[in-house]
Design brief:
There is one protein chain. The protein is α/β, with parallel strands linked by helices. 18% of the residues lie in helices and 32% in strands. It has a four-stranded parallel β-sheet with strand order 1-4-6-9, with no helix packed on it. Strands 5-8-11 form a three-stranded parallel β-sheet. The radius of gyration is 17 Å and the shape is globular. The N and C termini lie far apart (41 Å).
């Protein structure tokens, strides 16, 4: 019985994995999230990480999250593995954000965001990258153990 169910699991996993793939892109400029990035719908950090992991970045690319961002659809841990190119990525709240964005979740035995081995990605909590007020909070709410919001290795 166990073997009979195994192929179904693999088929299901295969379909879900490829259904969630975003098209690789050459990125430059500033993008609003939620929004469209190089023909891809990007509504959260999970989708942004998937896109960046398959894309090329030249120059400085800025992703500004609006006040309509919610972490409800995030899939933890959010794993950034890097991108092609020599550019820099900045992820921050949009200049109009006045109430802090909140990325909160309870991943099992993990950090919320994994940046292991990634270079040139900056999370800037200041709206529009200006001022000194942080308007983005990351909170790991896992009840068992003590896990960080970010991991850097």
């Amino acid at each position: 019985m166990k073997l009979r169910n195994t192929p179904v699991f693999f088929v299901t996993t295969f379909i879900v994995f490829f259904a969630g793939q975003l098209k690789a892109a050459n990125l430059s400029g500033t993008y609003s999230i939620p929004g469209t990035v190089a023909g891809n719908t990007v509504n959260n950090l999970t989708q942004l990480a998937t896109l960046l992991n398959a894309s090329t970045v030249n120059g400085t690319v800025i992703f500004e999250f609006s006040s309509s961002y919610t972490s409800a659809a995030e899939s933890y841990p959010i794993i950034f593995i890097g991108y092609s190119g020599t550019g820099n990525v900045v992820i921050r709240p949009d200049a109009s954000v006045s109430t802090a964005l909140n990325t909160s979740g309870s991943p099992a035995s993990n950090a919320l965001v994994d940046l292991s081995g990634v270079k040139n990605i900056t999370f800037d909590g200041r709206p529009g990258g200006a001022g000194s007020a942080a308007k983005w909070q990351f909170q790991n709410t896992a009840s068992s153990g003590s896990y960080p919001a970010f991991v850097f290795i």
